[in-house]
Amino acid sequence: MSVQSTGQAIGSALALAMEMDKNVFLAGEGIGTSIHVSPHLPANGLLERFGPDRVRDTPVSEAGIAGLAVGASCMGLKPVIEVMFFPFVTLASDMIVNHAAKLRYLSGGLSSFPLTVRIKTGIFSAGCQHSHYLEAWLTHTPGLKVVYPSNPADAKGLMLSAIFDPDPVIFIEEMPLYWSIHGETPDGDVRVTLGQAHIARAGSDVTLATYGGAVHVALKAAEVLADKGISMEVIDLRSLSPLDTATVVSSVCKTGRFVSLHDAARFCGFGAELVALVSESCFAELKAPPRRIAAPDIPVPFTPPQEKFYKPSVDTVAQTIRQLVS
């Protein structure tokens, strides 16, 4: 075990995968330049370690980067590409959604097409054209796997699983977690199974399911609620597609109440799918209607005070739970 930041943990997974398999390579805008000199950025030091043939700096063209990945995957390589900010995935969506996600199906299941798309996201005073959570778009695409870690150990384990998975995997990295969240990270090739959630905190009165940085908001809210005599179970989904429905359903059947939480906009967000799952699978056990906690249906604002208003807070979560159990 070693203590790492989330960014360092992702970087250690990338380095280990490249050591294990010469077919693994990285590509992206600026991935081989000085913008990655921070020790908390995943690509830090990888160019010097593996050389420009395996850490490829690309033109500023998300469509071109995604096309490179699809073609390389078809030729037996294992590309790991970076989309610098989540909104820019729209520029790469044709290659990812209309090609990568469908190639196994079009081959009749006879061929595999391993590729990993690293997408940076988060709210970090960069404005709405750099901050926009689109995970629900991607989970709506059959053929894509989508993972969203909240801590260093899971980030490393999920990244290794993603790179060596036979199918395209979207790996969402919340940038503020790069340096803000540190934790013990297993050494070596220790993987986290795709599609397996984690009970981040056990509870008996209400179930809350979330992912990414919102997990830490939920855990802080659980501490506040515990002081009021309310026991909240927090599920860190880790993987959005495939989704660990069994863990969610089992928890809700135990607690009888359910809340979803995410930093994406509320309308048609991933929380809506979770509420639908719970309503269909746990209706007889529910003691109250399921609730969604999410950002408002507006573009992500720029200034820190407005960002604070936009992002669901510990107080918002705690207040919603108190209303639900009252």
Give the SSE map.
Layout: E1 2-5, H1 6-20, E2 24-28, H2 46-50, E3 55-57, H3 62-74, E4 78-83, H4 89-97, H5 103-106, E5 116-121, H6 135-139, E6 145-147, H7 152-163, E7 169-174, H8 175-180, E8 182-185, E9 198-201, E10 206-210, H9 214-227, E11 232-236, E12 239-241, H10 245-255, E13 258-265, H11 270-281, E14 291-295, H12 304-310, H13 314-325
What does this structure look like?
The chain is α/β, with parallel strands linked by helices. It has helices spanning 6-20, 46-50, 62-74, 89-97, 103-106, 135-139, 152-163, 175-180, 214-227, 245-255, 270-281, 304-310, 314-325; strands at residues 2-5, 24-28, 55-57, 78-83, 116-121, 145-147, 169-174, 182-185, 198-201, 206-210, 232-236, 239-241, 258-265, 291-295. It has a seven-stranded mixed beta sheet with strand order 3-2-4-5-7-6-12, sandwiched between helices. It has a five-stranded mixed beta sheet with strand order 9-11-10-13-14, sandwiched between helices. Helix 9 (214-227) crosses helix 13. The radius of gyration is 19 Å and the shape is globular. The model has no long low-confidence stretch (mean pLDDT 95).
